[in-house]
Amino acid sequence: MKTTSARALGRTVWVLPGGRIPFPSHGDEPQFTSFDQLCVLNTGDDSACLEMTIYYADQEPVGPYQITVEPRRIRHFRFNDLINPEAIRLDRPFGAVVRSQTPVVVQMTRQDTRMPGSLALLGLTAFADQ
């Protein structure tokens, strides 16, 4: 099947209200480190330059965090790895707003390894605003 130019699917603003990186982790790193992870699908012909702002209950928002997803690609990145402008706090509730100049599709996954010898994995699609 030949790849053809695709219309960019998705939205330009995504909201993730239920973030919380579980802590502590048990098991080998990095595969069994607890995390919240964002998966971004860019079906369009242009790079998607994302800006993400993190919201906490007891402080002003932090951001923007910058992420690029190449055309017709998917990219996974862990919130744990976001350090600029500041590291995401472990085991603390947060929300995120992701903005992109080109439509993308966003999904969040959580891996929880707080209990020794057990693993919980949860996936959810974000709320698309625009």
Task: Describe what you observe in this structure.
0% of the residues lie in helices and 51% in strands. It has no helices and eight strands. It is globular, with a radius of gyration of 15 Å. It starts with 10 loop residues before the first strand and ends with a strand. 24% of the residues are buried. The model has no long low-confidence stretch (mean pLDDT 82).
Keywords:
globular, mainly beta, 8-stranded antiparallel beta sheet, 130 residues
Radius of gyration, Cα only, in angstroms? 15 Å
**Helix content bin:** under 10%
Q: β content, as a range? A: over 45%
N to C succession of SSEs = EEEEEEEE
User: Which term fits the overall shape?
Assistant: globular
**In total, how many beta strands?**
8
Mean of all residue-level pLDDT scores? 82
Compute the number of helices: 0
| Structural class estimated from helices and strands | mainly beta
N→C terminal distance: 32 Å
Major beta sheet, specifics? Answer: 8 strands, antiparallel
Low-pLDDT segments: none
Question: What is the structure about, briefly put?
Answer:
The chain has 130 residues and is mostly beta strands. The protein has strands at residues 11-19, 35-42, 48-55, 62-69, 73-78, 94-112, 120-125, 127-128. The chain is globular.
